[in-house]
């Protein structure tokens, strides 16, 4: 019997992908791993034929040959982006064609995706998240996105304590070349200046929290962990976090399911601020980290993701 | 226009990342059978799964000094979705 292949699109050093692959193999699944942005075109061959009937194609990596119509599920776990070369026209062409050709082939296989790359792209946008969170029934902090400093000042005057949080995370470089980032940080009214006019900035009413919750949802399974940290933004010091597995607050799983259903995601890593009135939605990381949560708590998240990939399509 | 006149306010919130821990492996390659990554230490020996420290949410930017990519897993927000709008 042909059970098909599970295609894992990921970079070589994503150890969370290794954890899921381990469970897939243990359950007898065939796995092919591929990092299109790195391996294609020098170390992989791809062909796809479109005509009468469904498309047919093949993917040959250094270690696997896959008939694309045999792919039963795709685990899209942070593959390396297609290169963005600065200068060469040939390199730009190669990358652009790969992204829209190969990327299109890998995004239109008639199978389950955890999660679909185009769905992930939409879900990475905070404006969509905040409105969907509201519709799902979560408490959401008052939020302002603006490049108008007067609007920001009025918002600060109305809400008192604010935090600033970039709309997209990432690394930057400091004055001395040191790697930097921008964590969520408190804002005083006097901090605001005309520099706000130079792009859109996200401000939120500061939530008076007692702890944070990291809630990882994979299919129907919900893994709820309380994070105690002395910091406003726990990401700034992992050593300072205490992890406690707790039962999810009443009603929370259904709201998570509703949120993910609206966005079309089978997985999400949610961050909540825990307050005396219950959890407040901060964000959902649609392809967020969970490996370290499994390491710290023993929660079987990798297994849950593997089960999701192995489920028979209904 | 000098950069200070156009510098977006948000960049004033930049802080240095904590220093990277020492490298725990020298190289990494794909096991052709299992399709899992194999991490090899300074002495050429494979490192037990889960002991190479890549599961923490640390930044790739911390590894600017070397090509070994210790702690390469980016945090949530640097999740790269290939399809930037253009």
Can you characterise this structure?
- The complex is a heterodimer of chains A (314) and B (86).
- By secondary structure, chain A is an alpha+beta fold.
- Chain A folds into three domains: 110 residues, Rossmann fold, CATH 3.40.50; 122 residues, ATP-grasp fold, B domain (D-amino Acid Aminotransferase, Chain A, domain 1); 63 residues, Dna Ligase, domain 1 (2-Layer Sandwich).
- Helix content of chain A is 30%, strand content 29%.
- Chain A contains nine helices and 18 strands.
- In chain A, the strands form five sheets. Chain A has a five-stranded antiparallel sheet, with helices on both faces. A four-stranded parallel sheet of chain A has the order 2-1-6-7, with helices on one face.
- In chain A, strand 4 and strand 5 form a beta hairpin.
- In chain A, helix 1 crosses helix 9.
- Chain B is low in regular secondary structure.
- Chain B has a domain of 56 residues.
- Chain B is built from one helix and three strands.
- In chain B, strand 2 and strand 3 form a beta hairpin.
- Chain B is elongated, with a radius of gyration of 18 Å.
- The two termini of chain B are 26 Å apart.
- The C terminus of chain B is likely disordered.
- At the A-B interface, helix 1, strand 2, helix 4, strand 10 and strand 11 of A face strand 1 and strand 2 of B.
